[in-house]
Amino acid sequence: MRFLAFVIIWASLGVGAVSTTTAYLWTFPESGETDSFLLGTGDDGIKAYAVLSADAGITEADEPVVAADTALTPEVVEKLQAQSVEPVERVRVKTFKLSRWSYLPHFVMACVGLLIGAMLTRVSAARAIKAEDAKAAQSDALSPEQAVAELREVVAGLLRDVPLERDDRRACALITDRLGDAIGDLVPAIADQRERLVARMGLGTYASLMDIFSSAERAINRAWSAAADQVIDESIESLERAAERLPIVEDKLTGRTPSLLPLG
Length: 264
Description:
mainly alpha, 9 helices, 4 strands
């Protein structure tokens, strides 16, 4: 269904684009109807006619019969009908008039096609979300929301417990131990759920989510690395940075409006 939706959307875009280019192409009469390009009559009784935006007609000398910027008065229409070697079917004018847009039905059909394609895309996305959620439920895997919530608990717990540990070595060991498990078990539960998250929130929103999550993940990895090097201050600083970003990840997953933070 998703493939069909994209086919309809692209076909509609093509038809709409082509039909739009004909909005200023007015049908030219084969004979007679010399006053068909009349736009109206002013208060002073002077008639206004559509003006050519491109040359029209072609003579035996391969020259245009009528140049651009010429008003299509009855005399000019007669000239085009009589002197053009090839019959003039359409002329390009500077005035838009809905009643003269012969391809308007095609444009309307293209708009309807875009709506149908959008509806099919939404239906396909809803089915994909259900399928991915069902697959995740059967495998008993952690949901992205659960993984983020547990990551927040790990980071918050470290920020609470580490300052109570007076021995820096023991504090660093505590950080590496807890973060090691979190990096191995919880981070993949989010990073490996691409299809499920894209189906749920769309590619653009997913990319925004991963920007924030990648920033939080880098901070967590840096906290572990600094603790492994026995640099406790830098490790705590990185934990604080991760603690700032993980709530934003959770907000994006649940659809709440997040606060804005620099992605350092």
